[in-house]
Amino acid sequence: KAKHEETVARNPGLSNNQISTLISSMWATESNEVRNAYKDLADRAKRQHAVENPGYRYK
Fold it and tell me: Which residues bind DNA (predicted)?
């Protein structure tokens, strides 16, 4: 999601499927440091959601 807009701008004319494939390849080559940074962001968002929505359960 973070790279989608930039990737589309750099690759005009590619379909959304092609953009997704390209971004997937980029993710596969990211360092553990970058991957961990995104995992930390997701963990923070999850904790924040739990605080804002106590008792929430996905159905």
Answer: 1-57
